[in-house]
Amino acid sequence: MSSFRTSSLKIYTLPTMAAIGNRGTVTEAANFNPDADAQKLRESMKGAGTNEAAITEILAHRTIAQRQRIKIAYKQTVGKDLADDLSSELSGNFRSVVLGLLMLAPVYDAYELRNAMKGAGTEEACLIDILASRSNEEVKVINDVYKKEYEKKLEDAVTGDTSGMFQRVLVSLLTAGRDESTNVDEAQAIQDAKEIYEAGEARWGTDEVKFLTVLCVRNRNHLLRVFQEYQKISGRDIEESIKREMSGCLEDVFLAIVKCIRNKPAFFAERLYKSMKGLGTTDSVLIRIMVARAEIDMLDIKAQFLKMYGKTLHSFIKGDTSGDYRKILLELCGGE
């Protein structure tokens, strides 16, 4: 954590104090005073015990850009790194949320990817969640940040930790080369649908490269047209075919790409739902999405959640978490 110095991130700092998206629950705080915030944070950690409520009150109600200003003010007035101080004062999931909130978006993504590949085993779900849902621009910056922070190319880290066709899909996503125009080439869309069908449902075994070429390269509007056409040719939804034809991480990454193309907030709503339903909570997923989407599209994610599951995201978080961890997540979630 402590390697995330404000100074080394000058190139990524945001020129304005506004939120990075316009559908978030976290918005720019009015009458923002970074020095006063830094002072309150300092006081929340003074003496015996920590005032978690004060930390939540400030950090959950400031944009990422405003939090960077607080970090600078804290360092100027206290002579120490805010993240380091909070890191040693806090623990558990609450600590993970707070430290995530202090990072710039691409820094947080890079940090999560790094954690997913550290040590034995790989948290493939993290690689999928991030790489299948970020724009070309976002992926390019994540690549830059990763190289700068960890002195290793993200692509090298990924290839060292994954294998087979799953690895090839991730490497393709890391090139950040998806067409981002809005053009639909009608003839090509029909051809793409036909090729995917012939590579999967229509043959024994699956030619996964065809799926990769279409799903990782074509633009959103074009793909939506491909999915319609695919349904016509095969009589099945593309997601259903992916489930029938593939398994494991490869199935997961292709499904994530299709879902993000169709409706990104719905993709995140489903990931949140699955992280909490049943026994136990997959806190890593819950934290990652709540922190990363809070000022981008949390309003849309909440609306999708309610539509898909008939319950509010707020009620799910409330029933599934506790203590200060629950409080800060509910603040990031915003009201019912």
TrEMBL record:
<keyword id="KW-0677">Repeat</keyword>
<keyword id="KW-0041">Annexin</keyword>
<dbReference type="InterPro" id="IPR001464">
    <property type="entry name" value="Annexin"/>
</dbReference>
<keyword id="KW-0106">Calcium</keyword>
<dbReference type="GO" id="GO:0005634">
    <property type="term" value="C:nucleus"/>
</dbReference>
<dbReference type="InterPro" id="IPR037104">
    <property type="entry name" value="Annexin_sf"/>
</dbReference>
<dbReference type="GO" id="GO:0005544">
    <property type="term" value="F:calcium-dependent phospholipid binding"/>
</dbReference>
<dbReference type="GO" id="GO:0012506">
    <property type="term" value="C:vesicle membrane"/>
</dbReference>
<comment type="similarity">
    <text>Belongs to the annexin family.</text>
</comment>
<dbReference type="GO" id="GO:0050819">
    <property type="term" value="P:negative regulation of coagulation"/>
</dbReference>
<dbReference type="InterPro" id="IPR002392">
    <property type="entry name" value="ANX5"/>
</dbReference>
<dbReference type="GO" id="GO:0001786">
    <property type="term" value="F:phosphatidylserine binding"/>
</dbReference>
<dbReference type="InterPro" id="IPR018252">
    <property type="entry name" value="Annexin_repeat_CS"/>
</dbReference>
<dbReference type="GO" id="GO:0005737">
    <property type="term" value="C:cytoplasm"/>
</dbReference>
<dbReference type="InterPro" id="IPR018502">
    <property type="entry name" value="Annexin_repeat"/>
</dbReference>
<dbReference type="GO" id="GO:0005886">
    <property type="term" value="C:plasma membrane"/>
</dbReference>
<keyword id="KW-0111">Calcium/phospholipid-binding</keyword>
<dbReference type="Pfam" id="PF00191">
    <property type="entry name" value="Annexin"/>
</dbReference>
<dbReference type="GO" id="GO:0005509">
    <property type="term" value="F:calcium ion binding"/>
</dbReference>
<protein>
    <recommendedName>
        <fullName>Annexin</fullName>
    </recommendedName>
</protein>
